[in-house]
Amino acid sequence: MSSATRILILGLLSKLEASHGYDIRHELETWNAEQWANIAYGSIYFALSKMAEEKLVKAVNTEQAGARPAKISYSITENGKEEFQRLLREYWWELKPTIDPFQVAITFMDHLSHDELLLSLNYRADMLRVNIKGFGQSIGLIMKEGYKPKHLEVNLRLSLAHMETELHWIEDVIGKVERGELP
User: Fold this and answer.
1) pLDDT in tens, 98-124
2) Domain boundary among 71, 93, 115
3) Burial of 8 (C-beta count, 10 Å sphere; 0-12/13-18/19+)
């Protein structure tokens, strides 16, 4: 389980009190967390179970409806609150690199033909333009849905700025490839 998943779950439980995995997943989906936190929603249930073993959360209620799997509600423990604060401070005060497989691929751009390199860069630029447009429009909609913390919009706008910066960078590289300056 990633520490990003851990901090998201602990942080939500500190706000939502007792919740089960579905509620946590739903809240993170409304935040578009998959765009900026690299969270695998299926890992939420595993993470809750693991954190219960570690005494960071505790099961407070179990609901059984027919043959469906039991729904376990969890709440954060004092140890969980301490771990949340530790992770929160670590993320605020330590500069950590963003690992992007695309940057690894850039290192070997000379292994693609000129045409394939341009095609892939243009495709990536087109995908970024679509994502920027859709994500930009969705920020307003996300913020209108029920209660959302004001700072969520700032977080979403940071993700949008990252996409816009990457698009600008790719457009510059496309020009360099077309002029024969790269690779």
Assistant:
1) 888 999 999 999 999 999 999 999 999
2) 93
3) buried
Q: Are residues 128 and 169 in contact, defined by beta-carbon separation less than 8 angstroms? A: no
Averaged over 68-78, what is the pLDDT? 91
For residues 122 and 77, give the distance between their C-alpha atoms in angstroms, rounded to a whole number.
49
Strand order in the sheet with 57-63: 19-20, 71-76, 57-63
183: in domain: no
Q: Could you tell me the pTM of the whole model?
A: 0.81
Indicate the number of domains in the chain. Answer: 2
Contacts of 67 (CB under 8 A, 6+ apart): none
146: left (phi over 0), alpha (psi -120 to 50) or beta: left
Q: How far is CA 11 from CA 77, 86, 109, in A?
A: 12, 12, 40
Last residue of a domain, which of 76, 93, 110? 93
Domain hosting 11: range is 3-93
Alpha helices in 75-147 (DSSP H): 78-93, 101-106, 114-144
For 121, counting Cβ atoms within 10 Å of its Cβ (0-12 exposed, 13-18 middle, 19+ buried), the class is buried
